[in-house]
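Design request, tokens follow.
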């Protein structure tokens, strides 16, 4: 009995030690101080992908420790870039799948590409050759991509100023596909340089086939900024038919607007939610005359105006790929 009494305190001490032991938190010493090595080489699931058919490229690699890593895919012809990054021991389908999207414009073309894996703190990089056999086709309602020029069902107005250039072009500035719209000129008497009306009838219905939920509707476009003393302004006017008479009446229907001051250099994607738009008159918020509700499915016409300060001389910008997307901004 006396032996049992002596053993019991010892068992209680051991049990107490087990209860107080906590799991280790934070990176292991191996992750912090261990040498870097490649356990499995940098590979890709395919050497070429047709993203228009939904194919993807899955990258893979494994390291001896957790690392900060970056994969950059370079388009040989387009100079597009896709950047994928993470912090892990492994690169796999869960953190390194490429679906043909672009991080840095212009967009990828059908072209050869190179994928380069870099690890923070490691001098060496690892590269693979890839091919794009078909470009990704985003889901949405395309209003204009200018691949077939200017649609005869659109309505255009161009001022008669100096050096007017309101033309579809194919050259080194192309950002998506082959064509884009160039908008440039000098107009000394008016802010308006030119405009295009995109009527819903050009897309096969009296109103645009969009969601009835304005929070779900995003409008996207690609705009190029020129470094000039006179920055361009692109004004979009979304004109609704609230009284169902198949036309827009400014005294009875709503119009929602977005003015974009193009004060950057190069191509940039611009996206905005339809429910965030307000009505503008001369650039200032103003009350609407319709039901004062955002109804994207009631849009009968979209007007795109190229504006610039008439006292500051020549102005120019380029635009491409006007598209509505559902529930999220465009992923090009």
């Amino acid at each position: 009995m006396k032996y049992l009494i002596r053993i019991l305190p010892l068992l209680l001490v051991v049990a107490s030690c087990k209860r107080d032991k906590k799991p280790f938190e934070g990176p292991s010493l191996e992750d912090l101080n261990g040498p870097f090595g490649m356990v499995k080489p940098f590979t890709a699931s395919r050497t070429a992908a047709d993203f228009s058919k939904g194919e993807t490229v899955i990258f893979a690699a494994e390291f001896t420790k957790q690392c900060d890593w970056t994969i950059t895919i370079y388009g040989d012809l387009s100079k597009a870039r896709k950047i994928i990054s993470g912090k892990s021991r492994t690169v796999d389908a869960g953190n390194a799948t490429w679906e043909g999207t672009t991080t840095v414009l212009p967009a990828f073309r059908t072209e050869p590409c190179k994928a380069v894996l870099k690890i923070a703190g490691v001098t060496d990089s690892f590269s693979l050759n890839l091919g794009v056999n078909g470009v990704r086709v985003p889901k949405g309602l395309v209003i204009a991509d200018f691949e077939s020029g200017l649609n005869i069902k659109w309505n255009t107005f161009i001022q008669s100023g100096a050096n007017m250039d309101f033309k579809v072009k194919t050259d080194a500035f192309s950002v998506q596909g082959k064509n884009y719209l160039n908008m440039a000129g000098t107009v000394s008497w008016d802010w308006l340089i030119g405009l295009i009306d995109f009527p819903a009838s050009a897309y096969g219905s009296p109103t645009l086939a969009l969601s009835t939920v304005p929070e779900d509707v995003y409008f996207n476009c690609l705009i190029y900024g020129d470094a000039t003393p006179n920055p361009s302004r692109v004004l979009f006017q979304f004109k609704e038919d609230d009284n169902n008479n198949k036309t827009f009446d400014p005294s009875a229907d709503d119009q929602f607007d977005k003015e974009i001051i193009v004060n950057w250099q190069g191509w940039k994607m611009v996206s905005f939610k339809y429910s965030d738009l307000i009505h503008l008159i001369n650039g200032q918020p103003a009350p609407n005359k319709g039901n004062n509700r955002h109804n994207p499915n009631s849009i009968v016409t979209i007007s795109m105006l190229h504006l610039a300060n008439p006292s500051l001389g020549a102005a120019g910008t380029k635009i491409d790929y006007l598209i509505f997307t559902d529930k999220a901004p465009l992923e090009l």
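Comment from the thread starter after seeing the answer: thanks! Residues 1-5, 7-15 have pLDDT under 50 and may be disordered.
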